[in-house]
Amino acid sequence: MALGVLYNSMRNDWQARRSVRQDGPGGVHPLLVAKQGAQGEVDMAVTITVLIDKSPGTLSRVIAALRKFGLTFTSHRLDDLGEQIRLRVAANGNASARELNDGMSKIRGVVAVADVNALGDGAAPTTRPASRPAPAAANDKLVDDLVNAYPKILRLITEYENQLKNSEERRGQLNSLGERVGHRLVAGKPGLDGVSTLHDALAKVVVPVLTPISEAEAVGSDVRMRLSVFTRRQVNTMDLVMGGEASRCDFMAGLIQGMLNEMPPFSRVRVEETRCRTNGDEHCLFHTVA
Fold first, then answer.
1. 151 prior amide bond cis, ω within 30
2. Which residues are paired to 93 by β-bridges?
3. Among 79, 108, 120, 228, which residue carries the largest CB count within 10 Å?
4. What pLDDT score does 266 carry?
């Protein structure tokens, strides 16, 4: 219902603006031309990406806030990520990236302001979590929460990922977090000592654990994953730039390695992702290295 209300609201806003004259300067649609505001300010192209939860009213609050900044929508995209929604909006306006970051981060239900780019204000695109401190490493409580919530882990992973400062930190910390969770998910399971081959370990232990969050299969000594809760949809250029799904694949690699390392014959096995959907591959491939 909330997605439908937002879509209709944006569609009505868009259609209302399509009724204006289509012959702006040089034959360009007026929405694509910078406009002179009442106070002499020039509207610039603005893009913003936010991750929001699905609690009632969140979408309405976000759209209302964007309109309060005086933005005129030109396009939008909604991605359902399971427990969250990713909203990307392109608009015209004169709000700065800093103003948008600060304002959107305070809205109830906003998990993170993932990217803001206000062209012309001199501000580079930013990544800013919504009012949460950035930890140096995953703590025991987070691991406990993930194990207890499994397989409903997308929100927790996204929140943690958005607290990490840079791509290298994200990759290392998410991989380490995945290992710890993987250990816990299979620790004490009966029959682990009886698994003698790597393929059996993947097919009989790892893949069944991954099934609630992915479409995975054991292929020889590798795991091939066509879809997961992190990569449910087709990859586009913005995903390649933002790198969000790629870093979460590091969590998946760690998760697989943690489960394997819990079995005595494979305690030293490492797992590396050699193919990834965010690179344009048809599937993600997690290769084991003895």
1. yes
2. 44
3. 228
4. 94
